[in-house]
Amino acid sequence: MEGKKGLLDDNFLFKVKPDSSLDRTKVFCCHCRCEMSYHRSTSSLKYHLLAKHPTLQGSSAQPSRLTKQVKLDGLRQKSMPASTTSKLSTAVAKWIAKACRPVNIVKDEDLREIIRIASNDPTYQLPSRATTVKNIAELYENEKTKITEALGKAETAALTGDYWTSLGNHNYLGVTGHFFDCEWQLRSTALTVMKTEERHFASVLSRLTTDSAHNMIAAARRFPFEHVPCVAHCIHRVITVCLHNSPFDSTLAKCRRLVGHFKHSPANSAELEHKQIAHDQKKESIAQDVTTRWNSTLEMIKRILRNVEPLRDALAQHATNVTMPTPAELDKLKNFPSFTFLDVSVKLLNTSEDDPAYLAKFKENFTAEMESRKPKMNIAWLRMATALNPRFKDLKCLKRHERPEVWRSLTALLGGADSKRTRKPEDEDPQPPTKRAALMLTQESSSDEEQDCTQNCVERYKAEPTIGMEDCPLKWWAEHQGSHNEVARLARKYLATPATSVPCERLFSLSGHIVQKKRASLSSENINRLDRRESGLVRYCVRV
């Protein structure tokens, strides 16, 4: 402690105020907790020791050092043990990595005070910058080891890949991996985010699965694996194409001008907020659609329809060439959401007698455009995944004559997997003709038995009742794997494959625009570690 030989050899300590500062006019005895006034003189302190603690005088045994012992809110508190301080330092490093904070935030005095108050330890010091960098590197290596071990135990794994250009005009290639662990938990993790100096050519992209960009599709042809284009990209592109030069085109153009009138003027935006309050509606800005942003057109229409009256009143406040959609156009917009969700179903796309002519025409164009893109979408893979999902194994989404082919393909896949596992290398010594003929007969008989066994496996799986839409297919497979072991191997392969490249795109939007701005100033060698920490430590789970 401070002052007068450490307040008589640490037998006394200054009182600590509620704000963790020291009150140098008050001291308390470390032995009996008696509080006394202190005016830069130790006479009263010595008198207290003589009167209350005479055994301490002249004794060779000194009291234990209490330099880190303080009084907070009337309680006797100690500084945090080393193990807790170490855990806290690791937690700070993890927070910096996941939240993309600058490492020099450990020098922030306000952060240090927050931790001191929360821990009741006014002596706590944040770890140094060097210690934090070392902890982050250790977290990265630990996470990398865990992911490597988990991938090594997985029978199959699926990859998604996407390109991204930073605000600093640097190209990055991101890859995510998806697989099931032994308990049928779907795990998704970032594998790499590498900086590339080359252009987005197919030769550079030939290491991963992709979205539906032309360079990604060309890269997929170089793969020795199955390629599944991003279904969401495909559907979004079909919607965009069908809306162009459609009966909706002029109405959407009017909506865009209406949104721009309020988005580009703070005064107009404020006027709209006042009108929303006047109509007892929540304040919300109207959204502008972006060609490359999924469902942005739908969101723009939804907000306009929710704010028809506030928009009309706000436009009436001053002269402008911008006009509201007519009642007929608003009715047309109300029909718009029923088919623009990416969750497109066959029933929604079927025309009915109640559909207006423009809506029936749009549905026909949409269906035709989707059919033209089917050959490029690896429909066989998607159908197999549907059959292996116990929620949709009845295949009612397919036409009746298309369903048997799916089950025949499943049987063939099971037979091929069985033959690979049971195939043995040929003996080096040639067999005599008689033995060779007998061996061929045996092999043919064995092959027939395997085919019957494979067919029985498929039939037993088909006989299982379909589960409800709210039930978890992974939980079902975890409970029924023992009964359908061969089919379960294929389910692990097909159900772990994402139908979209969304997981990979999340690498570049994990923390929104703030992360993108920070990445523009990051060194390329730290980019990979950044995304491994963000996606690997967060471990988001993709639901089937």
UniProtKB/TrEMBL annotation:
Origin superkingdom: Eukaryota
InterPro entries in the record: HATC_C_dom (IPR008906), RNaseH-like_sf (IPR012337), Znf_BED (IPR003656), ZnF_BED_domain_contain (IPR052035)
Keyword annotations: DNA-binding, Metal-binding, Nucleus, Transcription, Transcription regulation, Zinc, Zinc-finger
The HAT C-terminal dimerisation domain, residue ranges: 459-529
Location(s), subcellular: Nucleus
A single cellular component GO annotation: nucleus
Residue intervals of the BED-type domain: 20-54
MF annotations from Gene Ontology: DNA binding; protein dimerization activity; zinc ion binding
Record-linked Pfam families: Dimer_Tnp_hAT, zf-BED
PANTHER family: ZINC FINGER BED DOMAIN-CONTAINING PROTEIN 39, ZINC FINGER BED DOMAIN-CONTAINING PROTEIN 4
Protein name, UniProt field: BED-type domain-containing protein
Source organism: Oryzias melastigma
Lineage, broadest ranks: Eukaryota, Metazoa, Chordata, Craniata, Vertebrata
